[in-house]
Amino acid sequence: MRIGQLAQLVGVETQTIRFYEQQGLLPPPDRQDNGYRVYTEKHGEGLAFIRRCRILGLSLAEIHELQSYQDDPHQPCTAVNALLDDHISHVRSQITALQALEKQLVSLRASCNDDREVEACGVLAGISEGKMHQQ
Amino acid sequence: MRIGQLAQLVGVETQTIRFYEQQGLLPPPDRQDNGYRVYTEKHGEGLAFIRRCRILGLSLAEIHELQSYQDDPHQPCTAVNALLDDHISHVRSQITALQALEKQLVSLRASCNDDREVEACGVLAGISEGKMHQQ
DNA sequence: TTTAAACTATAAAGCTACTATAAGGTCAAT
DNA sequence: ATTGACCTTATAGTAGCTTTATAGTTTAAA
Ligand SMILES: [Zn+2]
Ligand SMILES: [Zn+2]
Ligand SMILES: [Zn+2]
Ligand SMILES: [Zn+2]
Predict the structure, then answer these.
(1) Pick from B73, B77, B71, B17: which is nearest to B48 by CA?
(2) Could you tell me if B58 and B25 are in contact, meaning their C-beta atoms sit under 8 angstroms apart?
(3) CB of A55 under 7 A from strand D?
(4) Which of the 5-24 residues on chain A come under 7 Å of nucleic strand C at their beta carbon?
(5) What is the rounded CA–CA span in Å between residue B23 and residue B13?
(6) B20-66: per-residue pLDDT in tens?
(7) Phi-psi sector, B83: left (phi>0), alpha (psi -120 to 50), beta
(8) Rounded to two decimals, what is the model's pTM?
(9) Pairing of strands A30-31, B30-31
(10) Which residues contact B60 (CB under 8 A, 6 or more apart)?
(11) Nearest to A118 among B49, B77, B109 (CB)
């Protein structure tokens, strides 16, 4: 299986596959005589794993860490669970921050209607005068 | 006022100020004979504006756009309000996406306890087997 | 058979919004 | 004279790719 087929199978671009290889997330495949990469099913599974991790918002470093745990399967999985817990709390704090941001933006938006000149725009005035709840 | 003082006043690093100048967000200040930048109060206000926009999550491009509106103050402020509306909906869709993500992560986490081996880890199994709600 | 499309390869740059580092010039005080 | 704090420019690094450039290979059509 060549890189293009693998890419289509998993739904990524070929460059992304090369990029993961370069980053040490995908093992370097064998090469044909012409230098073309040849992939196996294992590679397909590995790539799909990476993609699902990415969809879950895990960083490449976190994925790397998960892979290292997979490499000795008889360790307790505490670290895996902890990694996910950390990630969840990270996501939660992002949500909290964005919700606070949304509140600020909405109140800023409410300070203007559409029938003003830029000079008198409540939004611009609100930003300029620093009428923002700091944090 | 030199760059260090301005930086301390507004609470940014000097490099950030030079960076904004380079990006066309801050007008190039006059220079002393030795080449040092000299800033006025106007620059201070401009920089504070930029920083407050950044705190609101606006991109440099969006800030640039806002500045262009400020440059002719007798236009209607419709575009300003629209920019903010767009940004709000952007923030909201981020929140929605993160909440969906959190749900996925929590359910994934629930599929494991701390007393397993990596081999049997519910989290890793969940990712590997693609038991994820796509999207 | 020639040629063009589609594929592969590597290397390097671009994206965002900075931050950090390097190497050096300026200025006040000691 | 030298230290230290400040300033200058230029360059690289961060994350996770995407895009571009340049070139070699395979496959299919004309
Ligand atoms: Zn994380
Ligand atoms: Zn307005
Ligand atoms: Zn925005
Ligand atoms: Zn587990």
Answers:
(1) B17
(2) no
(3) no
(4) 5, 7, 14-15, 18
(5) 16
(6) 999 999 999 999 999 999 999 999 999 999 999 999 999 999 999 99
(7) alpha
(8) 0.90
(9) unpaired
(10) B23, B25
(11) B77
